Amino acid sequence: MKTLHIAFGLSLFLLLFGCLNTEVTPAPEGVPELTPPANCHIVTLTEPYTEEVCWNVTYTQEVCEYKALEFSVSSVHKLDLCTVDGDCVGKELSACPHTCTGAMKRCRMNVTNLNPDKAGVWAVGANFTLDNAGFIKDPVDSYLQPGETWTFDFTQLYTIGLGGSSMDCDMYLVSTPTVEFCHQVGKDDVECQERTLYRTIEREVCE
Fold first, then answer.
1. Is residue 25's pLDDT more than 60?
2. Which helix (H) or strand (E) holds 194?
3. How far is 70 from 163, CA to CA, in rounded Å?
4. Domains identified in the chain and CATH numbers
5. Is residue 78 within 8 Å of 126, Cβ to Cβ?
6. For residue 27, what pLDDT band results from cuts at 50, 70 and 90?
């Protein structure tokens, strides 16, 4: 009977000792440990990003080129005046046939600048001839305003030629003006630029 009491007491001791031992046995290797659930929520954020933005543009550009000015030239007006021999002096040579021994040849020509906006310089020369002789005059230039007319005038004294022949003359343009004309031309193009823009995103944040 005494042995039975000892066995019963030992069993009770082991049972109570096992219940009081609260140590948790670690999980075997390779098995993940359980973690308590996280506290997560959604937040709204604004983030920047770059984007190429393009647009159409229209601009004007000055274009220049050189052109000759328009002009008109009259026919050459010719006149012979007697310069010697009494009553014929100052008269036209045709009024004193075979009586005048000396005369003056006068040649004139009009040049008109036809451009309404631009001025320029015209140069004119003359060539006088009598029988086999020639007289070349130095060119004369004139600066003509828009729409202006100028008379180029050349004279040459001479002695009446064989058989009463008179002097002849020719007038010619030596140079004409070329000036710069400019105008505006419209052009289309595309311009692009990198710009920083912003967008709204939602992101989950856990604590």
1. no
2. strand 178-206
3. 43
4. 71-179 (2.60.40)
5. no
6. low
